Amino acid sequence: MASKYINITLKIWRQKDAKSKGQIETYKLDNVSTSSSFLEMLDQLNEQLVGERKEPVAFDHDCREGICGMCSLYINGRAHGPDTKITTCQLHMRSFKDGDTIYVEPWRSKAFPVIKDLIVDRTAFDRIQQAGGFVSVNTSGRTMDANAIPVAKFDADRSFEAAACIGCGACVASCKNGSAMLFVGAKVSQYALLPQGKVEATQRVLNMVRQMDEEGFGNCTNTGACEVECPKGISLENIARMNREYLVASIK
Ligand code: SF4
Ligand code: FES
C-alpha cells in the first residue's frame, strides 16, 4: 500500500519524575507517514522537540517487533491502541486519519508507578517472576534431556500459548481492579502443564501469588478486559488454572 502523509494532534502525558504532578500537553505533528510505526511517529515528534530545544518525550521500547513487552502505552483509552492482538510497536500510523487527535498516556495502575512521562516501573512483574517463574535444573551432568520426556500434545500446546506472554502489563492497565491475574496465570500455567514444571508446582503458585498480593495488584472480578486487550491473546482459562493450582497447593 502506498504511504501517504497525515497531520495529527498529540495529547501526551508529561511528568518530570515520579514525585511531580503530571499533565497532558498538546503537540502538532505534520507530515507523518502512514507507513511509519507508532513509535517511529514518537521518534519524529522527539526530533521536532529537540529541534525546538524542548525536552523529548520519554517512552519505553526495546525490540520494536512485539516480543519484549516494553512499549506499554495507553493510546486513545486502550492498552496498545485501537487494533487487537498487537503491541504498540506493531501499531502503524495507517490506523489513524489526517486531522486525528491522539491521546497517549502511560499505564495507569498503583503497582506500576510512573517514572517519567510515558515510562512506568514494571519491576513488580520481575519480582513475581523471581518468586517462582522458573524451573530448577540439576546440572550434575546426569540431567535428563528435556526432549526425552513425553508431553501430551494438548498440554504442550496450552503451555506454549501461555508462554507467549511477554510481560507487557496491558492486562493490569486495562483491568478496573489493576489485577495481575492474567500475567501470573500465564506464568503458572506455562510450567504447571509440563512434567518439568510439576516438581516445584506447589511452591511456585504459592510464592508467585503471595508476591503478586504484596506488590499491591488488585483482585480479579472476571470482567475479562485483560483478555480483550492482551496483545498475545492469553486466555482467561489460565486464571482458572492458576486458581485450581493455588487451591490444591493450599490444601497440600
Ligand atoms: S498476559 Fe498479555 S497483557 Fe498481560 S502481561 Fe502477558 S502478554 Fe501482556
Ligand atoms: S518494543 Fe518490544 S514489544 Fe514493543
Please supply descriptive tags for the structure shown above.
single chain, 252 residues, alpha+beta, Ubiquitin-like (UB roll), Fumarate Reductase Iron-sulfur Protein, Chain B, domain 2, 2 domains, five-stranded mixed beta sheet, two-stranded antiparallel sheet, 9 helices, elongated, binds iron/sulfur cluster, binds FE2/S2 (inorganic) cluster
Give structural notes.
One of its GO terms (molecular function) is 2 iron, 2 sulfur cluster binding. Belongs to the succinate dehydrogenase/fumarate reductase iron-sulfur protein family. Its cofactor is [2Fe-2S] cluster; [3Fe-4S] cluster. InterPro entries: 2Fe-2S_ferredoxin-like_sf, 2Fe2S_fd_BS, 4Fe4S_Fe-S-bd, Beta-grasp_dom_sf, Helical_ferredxn, SDH/FRD_Iron-Sulfur, Succ_DH/fum_Rdtase_N. The strands form two sheets. The chain has a five-stranded mixed β-sheet. Strands 6-7 form a two-stranded antiparallel sheet. Strand 3 (74-75) and strand 4 form a beta hairpin. It has helices spanning 38-51, 123-132, 153-163, 170-174, 181-192, 195-198, 201-214, 225-229, 237-251; strands at 5-14, 23-33, 74-75, 78-79, 101-105, 114-116, 119-120. 36% of the residues lie in helices and 14% in strands. The chain is built from nine helices and seven strands, in the order ββαβββββαααααααα. It has two domains: 5-115, Beta-grasp domain (Ubiquitin-like (UB roll)); 123-251, Fumarate Reductase Iron-sulfur Protein, Chain B, domain 2 (Orthogonal Bundle). It is α+β, with helices and mostly antiparallel strands and 252 residues long. Bound molecules: iron/sulfur cluster (SF4) and FE2/S2 (inorganic) cluster (FES). Iron/sulfur cluster (SF4) is lined by residues 165-171, 182-183, 186, 230-232, 234.
